[in-house]
What we know:
Blueprint: E1 5-11, E2 14-20, H1 26-33, E3 52-55, E4 58-61, E5 74-76, H2 89-96, H3 106-119, H4 125-131, H5 143-150, H6 177-185
Parallel strand pairs: 1-5
Antiparallel strand pairs: 1-2, 3-4, 3-5
Helix pairs in contact: 2-5
The structure holds FE2/S2 (inorganic) cluster (2 copies).
One FE2/S2 (inorganic) cluster is lined by residues 41-44, 46-51, 61, 63.
Amino acid sequence: MAKKVHVTTTVNGDEYEFLCHPGQTLVDALRNEMKLTGAKEGCSTGDCGACSVVVDGRLICSCLMLAVEADGKSIDTIEGMAQGDTLHPLQSNFLELNGLQCGICTPGILVAARELLKKNPDPTETEIRFWLAGNLCRCTGYDKIIRSVQAPGCSKINSPGHSLNSRRCSPAVRCSPDAWAWNRIHPQRSSQPRRIPFPRRPGRIPDAR
Ligand code: FES
Ligand code: FES
């Protein structure tokens, strides 16, 4: 049996050292060596996105990367998304808007969506659907996931009287100041998103993004 390899890496700002087999995948090392079980192993073939993490600023499927390749690299996982007890706005939205059911896909979708909003803070529905096409969910039918990504900071999106256009939003709904600010930059959006056909999935190879 091949000797184990010593790996040093940074995950969510904390340094980790572990021993792994040369053929061990990063998702396996995250879950079993570093005990960070947020990333899920769904397909092991780069198709479902449940294992999504960010390595040196690039969104990747951690089932397609060897743990030894993470040596000296910086990794961001779902465990680093909330700041203490304060959820990231995307996480709050997923809770408020029922963007998840069983939650197997959710960590990967949140990690991927955060990367999309870093690159494009004002994505269209089509852009969100295209970006998340490599993240499969068996439960929700995607619409609630898309809505959760569309309105960070706004927890009242489903309330009667709410509109994504702040000028039409009923004062009774009392959106948070963050939500009003968000709505001001998105005056064109309707609270009833149009259904857009799901685009052809581009495939998730590490170099695709
Ligand atoms: S487990 Fe990695 S893409 Fe499905
Ligand atoms: S919530 Fe179950 S797979 Fe997405």
